Amino acid sequence: MIVFIEDIKLMDISDLDLNLLVVLDAMFEEGRTTRVAERLGISQPMVSYALGKLRRSLDDELFVRVGNGMRPTRYAESLHAPVREVMRRIREEILRPAQFDPSVAQRTLTLCMSDMGEMLFLPPILDRLAKEAPGIRIQCLALPRHEVEAGLSDGAIDFAIGYFPDLAGAAIMRQGLFAHPFALVLREGHPLLEFEFTLDHYRQAKHIIVKNEGRVNQLLEFSWKKIGLTGPVMVELPHYLSLPYIVSSTDFIATIPMAAAKYFSRLTGVRCVDLPFEMPRVELKQYWHQRSHSDECSIWFRGLVAELFLNKDPSSHVFSLQASNRRRDHISSLPRHSPVFA
Fold this sequence. Notes:
This protein has 342 residues and is of the alpha/beta class. It contains 12 helices and 14 strands. Strand 3 (63-66) and strand 4 form a beta hairpin. It starts with a strand and ends in a 9-residue tail after the last helix. Residues 1-11 and 334-342 have low confidence and may be disordered.
């Protein structure tokens, strides 16, 4: 890069220590090396040493002694305005963190989560974005679990939200949100509901399981081995979408995370009951890469996710949103002369 200042000097910027501009800028303001030292919190000999390096680099005296002070040379005077502008831009545009205003931000955030995560996490997230950050667009990307870390690293995704125990790299940042217990869903009027539901009943039932790219089903299979459930699973599904409808119309039962079980019970009327044995909880977290850790938009979005889901049941958000929308739709359908609008 070539620095050209008022046709006076032509030089390669690599020959100049840009840290010395701090001293030069202070000299323009103070006019004495002792005052510059006090202002910058360094010793007077260090100021003199810096001025010496500047003189050699710029091939000019820069400041000459006049009376009790130092006066800039004509060349130094020509540098005053450019140096002041450079220092201003460094302070205001480089050293000052960018201010993020969600209300006017235009950004696309790419999220990786399971289909169950999309059902539970997205409604409250989208509701908040519509109110606080209408210019932020959400894109969901499904990646095989072995590609999620690379996706965070290369920027293909901004966040992974859910159960991703394989994300253990040193550059992967994480925040725990909540722990999922498991529950059982089965149809209303299922024969098993006529008795006290026992472990033997559970072993003898016809099971349906979701086997997708997630790791939740591995916890289930591990628990089944511990309780001696070795019989074949009668139905395997690649995703959760059709599960509640199959369960609600057959005698199959399904063991799924509690929040999803509650959601399905409200959606299709299936029963949600406790398991007759202990299972490990699913630890759900949000993940991001270290290189976006200080990004203002990333910080804001992580805070939003934590506010919504930290130590909370995500299904409760969905239910409250549904109730709120029903109330809003009811009010909007009332005649305009109704007292509600008075």
